[in-house]
Amino acid sequence: MSMSLQESLVAVFGGIFAVLAVASCIGALLKWRLAPGASHATVDNLNSRIRAWWVMILLIAGAIWIGKGGIIALFAFISFQCLREFVSLTHTRRGDHQALQWSFFFFLPLQYYLIAIDWYGLFSILIPVYAFLLLPICAALGSDTTRFLERAAKVQWGLMICVYCLSHVPALLSLEIIDFAGGNVLLIVFLVLTVQSSDVFQYVWGKLLGKRKISAAISPSKTLEGLIGGVLTSTAVGAALWWMTPFLPWQAALIALTINVMGFFGGFVLSAIKRDRGVKDWGALIEGHGGMLDRVDSISFSAPIFFHIVRYWWVA
Amino acid sequence: MAFEHLIASGLCAFAKLLTGVRAVWRTTEPLPRRRIYFANHRSHGDFVLIWASLPSPLRRRTRPVAAADYWLQGGLRRYIANRVFRAVLIERAAKSGRADPVGQMAEALAAGDSLIIFPEGTRNLGDTLLPFKSGLYHLTLAHPDVELVPVWIENLGRVMPKGAVVPVPLLCSLTFGPALAVAAGETRDAFLARASAALLALAPPAD
Predict the structure, then answer these.
(1) Which of B 108-147 lie inside 8 A of A, CB atoms?
(2) Exposure of B173 by Cβ count < 10 A (0-12 exposed, 13-18 middle, 19+ buried)?
(3) A212 is in which domain, residue-wise?
(4) How many domains would you assign to chain A?
(5) Which residues of A touch B204 (CB under 8 A)?
(6) pLDDT tens across B24-39, in order?
(7) Distance to chain A for B124, nearest Cα, Å
(8) Are A116 and A43 contained in the same domain?
């Protein structure tokens, strides 16, 4: 690393704040020119998205400032909120009540506790092995066979997507990377910034050029033009951030491309679930963005892949 | 009275925090009119959630109808039911001396208050609605100027199903549907079936 951790964080967050400030100015200008004092669906949605971005970035910055505990607490909260949204929308029955209690009050906190104490061996199998086997036992003891396999699968899926996959973001802190000691928090910034900017650029390119829908049955707003433009632009963003990672520029670009593609398909898969349930958003927590899960679906799909790429090639 | 308002705000805030409840007003608006809100019943917390979702001026003029045998047990429940929610407590067992629930509810309407009622009569453990009790029909005949607003409560029965001790923090939603009234010459059974269908129409699609 050429820069110290402090300098890198100041540089990257200074950059984000500058971009957001410009975005806020543009949003205010559009509002002033197009719809002063009146409502305008697109502009108002843009402005509430920008405001939500400020809140999200400030939360992440605050968590990083607090340190490892802050980051783990932030992602544990995000997991909790996502799991709420996920289970609320997928119909479980009374017989699942105990399995849900275990999911919310045992497996979720334990998963993040294992990350806090750096117990990789258990953290990586807690939900795929132990929750996978124990929760269906709980559900079966509820003596309700109606749609049993489907219900068991839904609870497991919720835990995997909302807790297991997302928990790989703070787990990045526990990797021991050669010549990068203490800099791991920058990997989180790299991951979140790259994947989230991909969401933004897909939205922008889709609005500007979007014509060919990837699957009208799954999402009317996901177009091929949006996908290619968004993924390529944010791959460039990822490559441009190479200086704060242990990667070379070409490696940063390749990794950014991989996690952006995974992130896109995360949103795509979860859209299929939403479509099946007849809703547009997972919730209404974040104004302009829908629910928490709408915001982090792409991170959920990219975080474990990113974690294992780094763990396989960069950890001693 | 101020102390009761404080407790009421606290309970509402807790209910909203636990359930993240979201109220969707479909074609109806939260207006200060006399109304009967009728809803599906899965949990003891049902009326708290409806009550908490109303704007505070409406809340003060809206009284839940609840079972006396449950809410008069113990000093705390009695205090909350009588003083905080100003519930209209009715006897469910027909054998008791004062068994004129419809009369009690009509009294509250006559005094200018709105009501929250659960026409299924008991907490429902199944997937669809139980047949409605006839009280809804008699009330609306006696007070034709009072609007009947169906409210579908989604998920609260899963947060705290009957017999559970620890709630699961799922997100709940309330859907307030368009008001309905008895049509000219409509029979009791036809009206109750229509009210039940209007409520069920607000439910999200089943699996």
Answers:
(1) 125
(2) buried
(3) 183-316
(4) 3
(5) 277-278
(6) 888 888 888 899 999 9
(7) 12
(8) no
